[in-house]
């Protein structure tokens, strides 16, 4: 045994001083928006932890949130407004004062607004204040506004909102407390980052549960799945159809649920060639008709006494035939082309396994039914004693969304859920308020006209329900710069940010005067085709002027996009600002009840930077925009964004925050502005939340008590039931136009595309790029994911997170690699029809053999993000973006569609097809393409060799006070070593 | 060359880590770094933080890798690793200065920075690789089990757990007295058949790992049916059945 110590055990201070002050606010390290407690020591952050009282994260915090200190103190933070001095893209700037910056921006904007407001393209990236920025765009008068949803997950949003009244994404969640079987499609990580993790922990520690992950790659969540289905990318729709096929054949359907709550029994007119073929047969009041199987006649779908037939052909009063929507749906999916045997090879999962999954789902839904002892009354006044639950839940995200067939695939998943009766029931998928909303919800996109000095009549983004809502010229030419809501992408309800730069450069459909962007790294990891995008941003006309005449960009950090701006407006970090996480926008509600939250400044900026929202209000007031400037020209919200959050009313009584409204602060939902509202939020931990009663908690689409409450809160226009759409009449309206009906029809060259893709029932088609390229030449799928510790976050300038991942490799299935003669750590070329990129390989077994993948957005360009030129991110890290084209291969006439879903315009990142080749030995060691380094910014901080964050906090602790410990003794022969210690 | 507590420590504070639900998100590792860089062993220095080889002190690191099961089926494992606060801690007994020690009162293994000479013998002795050398100051650092947090009267009682435990989103980490067979953590270990990491080395680690639950796939036993029985094989027959299905509901 040992001989030391003879001295006493060290006395440890187990109760050291932690912080001088703790302030609550909301995290912004990703889109999850957790509540945090920030411990402060003077003007330094000692520690950031999850707020245990917060409805989103309940005290936990992920790796990103825990690395907030490094984000806040990043050397990549911008310091002061910048005006470009060199060529675009050089990175050469001079610092200017805010007055000059705002005068310049205001001047440019004012000139555009006085001429044609649509010449401003305003796109705001990972903006968490879209209800504000969209409102600003509307008041400016430009229809050319969107955030990043079009290249993120609009397929999930649109498919859900047009089918189920709410969507996956962050707008719904599995019933984590009751679900017994979770089927998760294409989720490596999600916006609901911590709630999903909390939920998976709950699910898996309950006995008798099963978690199935359908994902080509077995990482993260898939790693802890009870069963991993390594499906081939883009084929999930076929898998879902095969499940539906099996359930239909075995009659494992929740008949009552689909009859009562979906449009399954509604009669669809069968009159090929007629202008109303495929639309619902309606009575004189416009109510869809059903066929009552008991009294054997047509009845209104609002007749609650009726016993509507789900199949069969019936005769309408005018003699034409009609069949229930369910009949059409069943007829399609019972076809042998959707039998497990027929799809097994294509999806890479055996027929026996598909059958087994179908049987397991059916077993749990119908043999392990949950009955909650909660009585409730439905929309028609029918009282129910219990809440019946089918405890099969589903969740889906990017792996479904980022394919050009993603809208239909996501709709297929919703139809599967409806057949099982598992939407918003105990154990199923639950809506979060303000959902469910009517399918689709709310207003149509505004912006048919662009009038000088005139606001739009509404918000730029909305939900079209027919051709009349498209933003197109009479000849079909798109009115928006990104071509959203055109015949090419009719339901592009989040815009198409990924096409703006290309279209602005090409002047297709028209050139713009100013591109104004916020918080989106569009010259790098947020764009397809990085080399092309750089060209578009820097290309010049013959007279030497830039093809995109002016670019303003706002960001908190020195991202790759900064050097492409003419004017840079530096934003604050998330700890230095006010924000509202609003019910008008993307709230933080849970299925248990509504919630919203704020950010408050917990630290004062030490740089000459301003919150972007303050800057927008300032510009709005300078421009005299209605709602931002008073008639005398003074600012409507002189106190900036916090003033707006408190006092702005979107409609009377409805403002950005729902909590503590009214003069006395006692109203929630609707009420007059309360001058003390923000203080109320701060006193409550920077959030407001409320809980539904048990009676209101499920079946919300048909629940009298819930619907009344939802209407009172202003979430739905009236308290009527919300019917889910198995069959989408809205889709059929576009299709009829393509078939030659109505006043507004697509141009001839787009008719067949609309006809094929606007099927009123979910369809599957091969992803468009896969169909267009030679499968032998490009035999592999290539997809990306973000690592959990960087998902939806700025990553690389974070000193802690980059120690976890600073270089991405290309992951290949071991067997696939063997066939290619590739071994671990080899350097290879990944070659797409669009280009090639060089990377180092890592082999694994948990990946579909036809698929290669990598971590996204690890690669960084030299000179950006405050990183040293030798950083692995810039030398060995790479982006697949370089080899993804933003355009599909040309049509016969040469025209190239966007590489997007033809229904929603969702960027089809995961449609990429590639081949791989070993590179020459002399090519090893560094990635390609390699871009020139940016010039350093003025007054950029020096690189530091050693970061000793927290050293001061340690020294402050009363280390040896009152210690009875003996002085450390000199221990021969180690004296000299000890002496070497600093 | 340093003594362990003579009769062992009765109280054995430690962690129980559930490998069945750890998703490898790194929350515990980063939150640990965040707390501890300003805590007892401050700072957790980062060398070359924005350069070619960013490399700092971490008390907790997550390893994600694939393993092959008995049925030749591979799985992905996320494996968080920090000091296991062994009963028979070789990092303590190897220490030539008495810097490495195991606390009598709760079994936490700590380094007395004033005595550490940075000889690294402890990191050679630790089979788990759980020691972290701070080359900036030439001192060995390691997981303190948040000794400056778990007893800290300046924090609310609910926060007096290690940072990794309080932040873990899936709830894969539990903290408590593994010397008390009736503690929640001991019961959890008993119920889930928690195991010692590399038990054959006989270091008697305090921390325990809970194994992943058996897979549920085509190769494993399930109480659920493996296929459904069609009620009709022909489409027309099915559609005919459903015309008045509503009457039987």
Give the helix level of chain A as a range of percent: 25-40%
Structure annotation, total helices of chain A: 29
Major β-sheet strand ordering of chain B: 10-1-11
CATH class term of the domain at 168-434 in chain A: Alpha Beta
Could you walk me through the main structural features you see in this protein, from its secondary elements to its overall organization?
The complex is a heterodimer of chains A (982) and B (249). Chain A has 982 residues and is α/β, with parallel strands linked by helices. Among the domains of chain A are: 168-434, Dimethylsulfoxide Reductase, domain 2; 768-923, Barwin-like endoglucanases. Chain A contains 29 helices and 35 strands. In chain A, helix 7 links the parallel strand 9 and strand 10 (210-214). Chain A is globular and about 80 Å long. Chain A starts with 20 loop residues before the first strand and ends with a helix. By secondary structure, chain B is of the alpha+beta class. Chain B has one domain: Alpha-Beta Plaits (2-Layer Sandwich), CATH 3.30.70. Chain B is 17% helix and 19% strand. Chain B has 6 helices and 11 strands. Chain B has helices spanning 27-36, 90-93, 121-125, 163-167, 184-192, 235-243, and strands at 13-18, 46-47, 55-56, 60-68, 74-82, 100-102, 109-111, 132-134, 139-141, 173-177, 208-210. Chain B has a 3-stranded mixed beta sheet. A two-stranded antiparallel sheet of chain B has the order 2-3. In chain B, strands 4-5 form a two-stranded antiparallel ribbon. In chain B, a hairpin with a 6-residue loop joins strand 6 (100-102) and strand 7. The model of chain B has no long low-confidence stretch (mean pLDDT 95). The chains are: A alpha/beta (982), B alpha+beta (249). At the A-B interface, strand 3, helix 1, helix 7, helix 8 and helix 9 of A face helix 1, strand 2, strand 3, strand 5 and helix 4 of B. Chain A: Belongs to the prokaryotic molybdopterin-containing oxidoreductase family. Chain A: Keywords: 4Fe-4S, Iron, Iron-sulfur, Metal-binding, Oxidoreductase.
């Amino acid at each position: 045994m040992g001989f030391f110590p003879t001295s006493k055990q060290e006395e440890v201070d187990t109760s050291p001083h932690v912080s001088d002050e703790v302030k609550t606010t909301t995290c912004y390290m990703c889109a999850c928006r957790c509540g945090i407690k920030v411990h402060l020591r003077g003007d330094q952050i000692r520690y950031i932890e999850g707020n245990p009282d917060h409805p989103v994260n309940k005290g936990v915090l992920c790796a990103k949130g825990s690395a907030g200190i490094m984000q806040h103190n990043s050397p990549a933070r911008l310091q002061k407004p910048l005006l470009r001095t060199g060529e675009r893209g050089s990175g050469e700037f001079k610092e200017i004062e805010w007055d000059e910056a705002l005068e310049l921006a205001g001047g440019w904007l004012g000139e555009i607004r006085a001429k044609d407001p649509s010449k401003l393209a305003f796109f705001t990236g990972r903006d968490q204040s879209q209800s504000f920025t969209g409102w600003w765009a509307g008041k400016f008068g430009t229809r050319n506004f969107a955030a990043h949803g079009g290249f993120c997950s609009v397929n999930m949003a649109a498919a859900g909102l047009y089918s189920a009244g709410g969507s996956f994404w962050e707008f719904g969640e599995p019933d984590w407390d009751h679900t017994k079987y979770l089927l998760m499609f294409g989720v490596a990580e999600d916006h609901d980052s911590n709630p999903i993790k909390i939920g998976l922990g709950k699910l898996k520690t309950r006995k008798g549960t099963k978690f199935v992950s359908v994902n080509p790659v077995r990482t993260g969540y898939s790693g802890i799945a009870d069963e991993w289905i390594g499906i081939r990318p883009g084929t999930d729709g076929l898998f879902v159809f095969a499940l539906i096929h099996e359930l239909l054949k075995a009659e494992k359907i929740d008949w009552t649920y689909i009859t009562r709550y979906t449009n399954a029994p509604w009669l669809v007119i069968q009159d090929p060639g007629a202008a109303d073929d495929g639309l619902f047969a309606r009575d004189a009041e416009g109510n869809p008709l059903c066929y009552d199987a008991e009294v054997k006649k047509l009845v209104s779908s609002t007749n609650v006494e009726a016993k509507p037939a789900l199949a069969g052909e019936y005769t309408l009063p005018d003699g034409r035939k009609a069949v229930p929507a369910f009949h059409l749906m069943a007829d399609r999916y019972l076809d042998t082309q959707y039998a497990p045997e027929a799809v097994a090879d294509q999806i890479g999962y055996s027929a026996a396994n598909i059958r087994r999954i179908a049987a397991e789902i059916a077993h749990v839904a119908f043999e392990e039914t949950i009955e909650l002892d909660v009585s409730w009354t439905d929309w028609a006044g029918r009282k129910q004693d219990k809440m019946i639950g089918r405890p099969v839940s589903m969740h889906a995200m990017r792996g479904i969304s980022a394919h050009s067939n993603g809208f239909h695939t996501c709709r297929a998943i919703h139809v599967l859920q409806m057949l099982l009766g598992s939407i918003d029931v105990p154990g199923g998928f639950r809506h979060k308020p303000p959902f469910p909303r009517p399918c689709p919800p709310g207003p149509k996109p505004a912006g048919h006209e662009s009038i000088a000095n005139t606001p739009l009549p509404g918000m730029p983004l909305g939900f079209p329900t027919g051709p009349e809502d498209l933003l197109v010229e009479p000849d079909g030419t798109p009115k928006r710069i990104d071509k959203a809501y055109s015949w090419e992408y009719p339901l592009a309800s989040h815009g198409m940010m990924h096409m703006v730069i290309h279209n602005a450069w090409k002047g297709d459909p028209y050139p713009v005067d100013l591109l104004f962007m916020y918080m989106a790294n569009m010259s790098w990891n947020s764009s397809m085709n990085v080399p092309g995008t750089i060209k578009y941003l820097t290309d010049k006309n013959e007279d030497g002027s830039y093809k995109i005449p002016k670019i303003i960009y706002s960001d908190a950090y020195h991202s790759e996009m900064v050097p492409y701006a003419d004017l840079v407006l530096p934003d604050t970090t998330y700890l230095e600002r006010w924000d509202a996480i609003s019910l008008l926008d993307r709230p933080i509600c849970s299925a248990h009840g509504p919630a919203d939250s704020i950010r408050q400044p917990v630290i004062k900026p030490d740089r000459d930077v301003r919150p972007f929202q303050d800057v927008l209000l300032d510009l709005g007031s300078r421009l005299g925009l209605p709602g931002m400037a008073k008639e005398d020209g003074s600012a409507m919200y002189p106190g900036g964004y916090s003033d707006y959050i408190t006092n702005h009313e979107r409609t009377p009584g409805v403002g950005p925050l729902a909590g503590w409204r009214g003069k006395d602060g006692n109203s929630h939902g609707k009420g007059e502005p309360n001058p003390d509202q923000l203080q109320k939020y701060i006193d409550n931990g920077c959030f407001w939340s409320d809980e539904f009663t048990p009676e209101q908690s499920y079946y919300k689409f048909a629940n009298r008590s819930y619907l009344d409450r939802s209407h009172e809160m202003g979430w739905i226009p009236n308290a009527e039931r919300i019917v889910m759409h198995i069959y989408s009449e809205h889709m059929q309206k576009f299709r009829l136009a393509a078939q030659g009906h109505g006043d507004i029809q697509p141009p001839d060259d787009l008719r067949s595309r609309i006809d094929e893709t606007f099927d009123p029932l979910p369809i599957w088609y091969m992803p468009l790029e896969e169909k267009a390229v030679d499968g032998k030449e490009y035999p592999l799928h290539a997809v990306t994911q973000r690592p959990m510790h960087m998902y939806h976050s700025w990553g690389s300038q974070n000193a802690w997170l980059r120690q976890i991942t600073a270089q991405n490799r290309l992951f290949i299935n071991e067997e696939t690699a063997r066939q290619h003669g590739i071994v671990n750590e080899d350097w290879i070329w990944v070659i797409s029809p669009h280009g090639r990129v060089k990377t180092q390989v890592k082999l694994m077994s948990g990946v579909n053999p036809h698929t290669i993948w990598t971590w996204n957005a690890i690669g960084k360009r030299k000179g950006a993000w405050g990183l040293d030129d030798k950083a692995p991110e810039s030398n060995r890290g790479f982006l697949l973006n370089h080899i993804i084209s933003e355009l599909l291969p040309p049509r016969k006439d040469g025209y190239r569609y966007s590489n997007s879903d033809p229904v929603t315009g969702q960027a089809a990142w995961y449609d990429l097809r590639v081949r791989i080749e070993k590179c020459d030995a002399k090519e090893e060691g560094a990635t390609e393409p390699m871009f020139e380094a940016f010039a350093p910014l003025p007054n950029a901080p020096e690189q530091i060799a050693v970061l000793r964050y927290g050293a001061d906090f340690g020294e402050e602790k009363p280390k040896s006070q009152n210690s009875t410990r003996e002085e450390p003794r000199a221990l021969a022969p180690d004296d000299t070593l000890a002496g070497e210690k600093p | 060359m340093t003594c362990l507590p003579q009769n062992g420590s009765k109280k054995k504070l430690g962690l129980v880590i559930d490998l069945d639900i750890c998703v490898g998100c790194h929350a515990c590792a980063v939150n640990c770094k965040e707390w501890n860089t300003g805590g007892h062993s401050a700072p957790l220095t980062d060398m070359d933080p924005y350069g070619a080889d960013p490399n700092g002190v971490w008390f907790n690191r997550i390893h994600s890798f694939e393993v092959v099961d008995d049925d030749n089926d591979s799985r992905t494992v996320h494996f968080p690793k920090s000091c296991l606060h062994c009963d028979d801690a070789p990092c303590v007994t190897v220490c030539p200065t008495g810097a490495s020690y195991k606390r009598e009162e709760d079994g936490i293994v700590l380094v007395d920075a004033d005595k550490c000479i940075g000889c690294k013998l402890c990191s050679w002795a630790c089979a788990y690789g759980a020691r972290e050398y701070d080359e900036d100051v030439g001192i060995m650092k390691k997981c303190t089990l948040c000794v400056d947090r778990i007893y800290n009267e300046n924090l609310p009682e609910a926060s007096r757990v290690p940072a990794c435990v309080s932040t873990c989103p899936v709830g894969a980490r539990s903290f408590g007295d593994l010397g008390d067979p009736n503690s929640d953590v001991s019961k959890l270990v008993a119920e889930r058949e928690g195991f010692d990491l590399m038990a054959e080395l006989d270091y008697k680690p305090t921390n325990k790992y809970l194994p992943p639950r058996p897979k549920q796939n085509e190769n494993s036993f399930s109480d659920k049916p493996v296929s459904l029985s069609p009620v009709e094989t022909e489409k027309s027959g099915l559609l005919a059945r459903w015309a008045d299905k509503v009457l039987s509901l």
